[in-house]
Amino acid sequence: MFTSTNNTRVKQIAEYSKKSKARRKDGVFLIEGIRMLREVPLEAMREVYVTKHFLENLSPDDKTLIRNIQQDDGVSFEEVSDDVMRKMADTQTPQGVLAVVKEKRWEIKDLMGETPLLLILENIQDPGNLGNMFRTGEGAGVTGIIMSSDMADVYNPKVVRSTMGAILRVPFIYVDSVPEIVKELREKYNVTSYAAHLKGTKNYDEISYKEASAFLIGNEGNGLTKEAADAASEYVLIPMLGKVESMNAATSAAILTFEAARQRRQ
Where are the domains of the chain? Predict the structure, then answer.
């Protein structure tokens, strides 16, 4: 049992919680809470830490889950004190279980699905927005998410929590150039890309997305760069009433992807 916050491993996990550089170096990220733990494949777990209170209040199904983790030789399992859990966790009131999970790597072909429906995100900085895009994207049937390299870190604990497990299921990649990936998608996979833009000449619900499609969503404050927007096949407009000048990035992504989902159900 770990009881000292000065333990070397405890300090390392606290680094994972706070610094993306430490996570990238070791190819891991953290998840907190029993709901997220249930989502993680056993083969992706590296370390699991729990408190005594957590172990004493498990449901029968979760007792089975914990037993399976303890019996797996590939997973390090350790009980820790409440102080140690607070040191390692990102949340102010930890839920009593934290796991170190291996990053999963995808290639562009893994994002295609049967009929591609992609989100291409440029310079999204808010962790909550990014997490919500994963969550709503999965709900809409998005087959993959492509992100510019200057984005918020997808493995930031706040992003991971906001995805509600979608980060474990929705494939994603980072790219250095949004215009270049848009071009590659068009030429290699026949994907038509649409830029959410205030200069759109057609409303978003006037276009068919039944074939391979991708939606470009830009930075919360500045929108898409001109280079990224111009790489798209078409600008699309989300019409708004009142004096509203722009739409939240995550909301725009949800509107567009669920419209595509609606059309594909017909």
Answer: 8-102, 108-265
Q: How far is CA 10 from CA 2, 4, 80, in A?
A: 8, 8, 9
C-alpha 234: how far from its chain's center? 26
Residue with tokens 């984005």: 151
- Nearest-angstrom CA–CA distance, 148 and 20: 16
Indicate the pairing of strand 172-175 with strand 144-148: parallel
pLDDT of residue 73: 94
Query: Do 132 and 97 contact (CB within 8 A), yes or no?
Result: no
Residue 60 burial (CB count, 10 A): 6
User: What's the CATH architecture for 108-265?
Assistant: 3-Layer(aba) Sandwich (3.40)
Q: Are the C-beta atoms of residues 17 and 89 closer than 8 Å to each other?
A: yes
pLDDT digits (tens, 9 = 90+) for 78-87: 999 999 999 9
The share of the chain scoring above pLDDT 90, in percent, equals 89
Check: CB of residue 216 under 8 Å from CB of residue 236: no
pLDDT value at 192 more than 80: yes
Residue 102 vs residues 28, 37, 44, 105: alpha-carbon distances, Å:
5, 13, 5, 10
Grade residue 29 by pLDDT with cuts at 50, 70 and 90: very high
The C-alpha atoms of residue 209 and residue 129 are separated, in whole angstroms, by 23
pTM above 0.90, yes or no: yes
d(CA 115, CA 126): 29
Class level of CATH domain 8-102: alpha beta
